[in-house]
Specification:
heterodimer, A: about 260 residues, alpha/beta, 10 helices, 10 strands, B: mainly alpha, ABC transporter involved in vitamin B12 uptake, BtuC, 13 helices, about 75% helix
């Protein structure tokens, strides 16, 4: 059974069918790329999966359980964490607190225990601190733990956003254009980071990306969207030769 | 860990020390009744400013009705003392609790619709609420209407106010450094990202809002039992703005800043009594200058504790290296 599965997923904004009939499945430990030209509906898929919008049609299941109608924070707690196309960090607080915030749902001590600094507060805070440092270590961010998130260079902000998403202990990681705005060196480094995440954590990854060489290098399967519809699926090699995909990207005539 | 404990102990001792000095001065008659009253007003305003800072500085929601919550607490507490039939000493703590509870309940009820709104809308809703409360109090019988509620025994002495002020500062300070505090701050930073990080934003907004309302209610209860008479006019929009000015001036997100600003802005109007008419003008000018030159407030997000002042003084006068960084 697929880890994450959508059936006939669709959403209509006013008269615009932003997404129609999306059947998508993600197996455990799989890396799938979601590609397509601008406005194809890729980010809309993420917003539906994380319940930013309610779908007009169709179903979404995680581990066989429907997650339609759940709140965004509940979906994160159930195991789908995401990053954003335009980085959304907690800019004015420390790097490590950014990560700790995503671990909040795994912490148990009540408000009063925190105010009175009871043993449960000390124990959980220590535990979360070492876990957060460990996670920052994976992304080589330990030395920046105490600096404000906004002071990190761009590439490291992207990494921190991934670290924060992973801090929520997700089963599925959604990455929205992780390579956007990166130079080739940074992109290369990012690919290594994603492979590292994939090796280190028992996790499935669904990623949106424009950079073809990037998705070709990292994804096992690709799904191509255009005007809210799936126009192709397959391995990177198959997609590269697919005439419909070439037409969608280059605007060529359809034979 | 050990250093932290020492820091706690030093803070506690210094807090107690400051209290002892003032208490002795009051006892010895060096501080007369007028100045004791001023100290009490400072304490009450610190509670108000620090609690509003939780919502405005840390949660990032602009609230313009803090005086409304204060009035709910003030009237609830006063009515309990006046009608409970208990001896005054026993009635007073109960009255303060009742004031907090009443303000918390009202805060919760206002919060349900208000916290769905953001920015300007929340400000307008809370502004409207503050005025509604004032008008209701004016119209009701058991609150004394416009004549006011009279004969409330003066039970809130310096000791009560100082202790509860210290507790309030402590509660907000440690709350902000707990997981709940981080969740509250994450909402200020980016609500969408907070949801995506698994934060139940509605819950934490309500937590901050209700706690701030309850503390404003506490300040109201103390005020009622200090001044002895309650009139609705005291809790008008201007007072809400005054509290907000303390928060903004001290620095949104700095508890120390709120304390310092509350002290300054309570003393200043007293010192400038003869210019009373121009007080709001002066406030406005100060705020404009502040926004132009230091929009983050006097202290920004900076915090210092009594213990750290002690360390710095020691380092200055006795030369020893100041080794640890701020908690």
């Amino acid at each position: 059974m697929a880890l994450l599965e959508t059936r006939d997923l669709g959403i209509t904004f006013g008269g615009l069918q932003a997404l129609q009939h999306l059947d998508l499945s993600l197996e455990p430990r799989e890396i799938v790329g979601l590609i397509g030209p601008n406005g194809a509906g890729k980010t809309t898929v993420f917003n539906l999966l994380t319940s930013v919008y309610p779908p007009t049609t169709g179903s979404i299941t995680l581990d066989g359980v429907s997650i339609v109608g759940k709140k965004t924070y509940q979906i994160t707690q159930l195991g789908i964490a995401r990053t954003f196309q335009n980085i959304r960090l907690f800019k004015d607080i420390s790097v490590i607190d950014n990560v700790k915030i995503a671990m909040n749902a795994q912490m148990r001590y009540p408000t009063l225990a925190g105010i009175l600094r009871l043993p449960s507060y000390r124990r959980e805070e220590q535990e979360v601190h070492s876990r957060a440092m460990e996670l920052l270590g994976i992304f080589s961010l330990e030395e920046f733990a105490q600096s404000k998130a906004k002071n990190l260079p761009y590439g490291k902000q992207r990494k921190l956003e991934m670290a924060r998403a992973l801090a929520a202990n997700p089963k599925v990681l959604l990455l929205d254009e992780p390579a956007a705005g990166m130079n080739p060196t940074e992109t290369q480094e990012l690919m290594e980071t994603i492979s590292l995440i994939h090796r280190t954590f028992d996790i499935a990854i669904l990623l949106i990306e424009h950079d073809m060489s990037f998705v070709m290098g990292i994804c096992q399967r690709l799904v191509v969207l255009d005007y809210g519809k799936v126009i192709a699926r397959g391995t990177p090699e198959e997609i590269q030769k697919n005439p419909a995909v070439i037409a969608a990207y280059l605007g060529g005539d359809e034979e | 860990m050990k250093k932290k404990l020492i820091s706690y102990a030093v803070n506690l001792l210094l807090t107690a020390g400051i209290y002892t000095v003032f208490a002795l001065l009051i006892q010895g008659g060096v501080i007369n009744r007028y100045y004791e009253g001023l100290l009490i007003n400072i304490g009450i305003n610190i509670i108000l400013a620090v609690s509003l800072n939780l919502v405005t500085g840390f949660l990032g929601q602009l609230v313009l009705g803090h005086a409304g919550f204060m009035s709910v607490g003030a009237y609830a507490a006063a009515l309990v003392t006046l009608n409970s039939g208990l001896p005054e000493a026993a009635a007073f703590p109960l009255a303060l609790l009742a004031g907090m509870l009443a303000a918390a309940i009202v805060g919760f009820l206002i919060g349900i619709p208000a916290l769905r709104m953001k920015g300007d809308y929340l400000a307008i809703i809370t502004l409207g609420f503050g005025e509604i409360i004032r008008v209701i109090v004016l119209a009701l019988d058991f609150t004394g209407g416009a004549r006011g509620l009279r004969g409330i025994p003066s039970l809130a002495d310096f000791t009560w106010v100082y202790v509860l002020m210290a507790v309030t500062v402590y509660v907000i300070f440690t709350l902000i450094r707990s997981r709940q505090g981080r969740a509250i701050i994450s909402i200020r930073e980016d609500e969408i990202a907070a949801e995506a990080a698994g934060i139940h934003t509605t819950y934490y907004k309500m937590l901050a809002f209700v706690l701030a309302a309850a503390l404003a209610g506490l300040a109201g209860g103390l005020y009622a039992h200090h001044i002895g008479i309650l009139t609705p006019a005291k809790f008008d929009f201007n007072y809400s703005v005054e509290i907000l000015i303390m928060v903004v001036l001290g620095g949104m997100g700095s508890i120390t800043g709120s304390v310092v600003a509350a002290i300054i802005l309570t003393i200043l109007p007293e010192a400038l009594r003869s210019f009373a008419d121009y007080r709001m003008v002066l406030y406005s000018v100060v705020l404009i200058i502040m926004m132009l030159f230091k929009p983050s407030g006097l202290l920004g997000e900076f915090e210092f504790s009594l213990a750290s002042i002690g360390r710095k003084l020691r380092a200055r006068f006795f030369g020893g290296a100041v080794s640890r960084k701020e908690d």
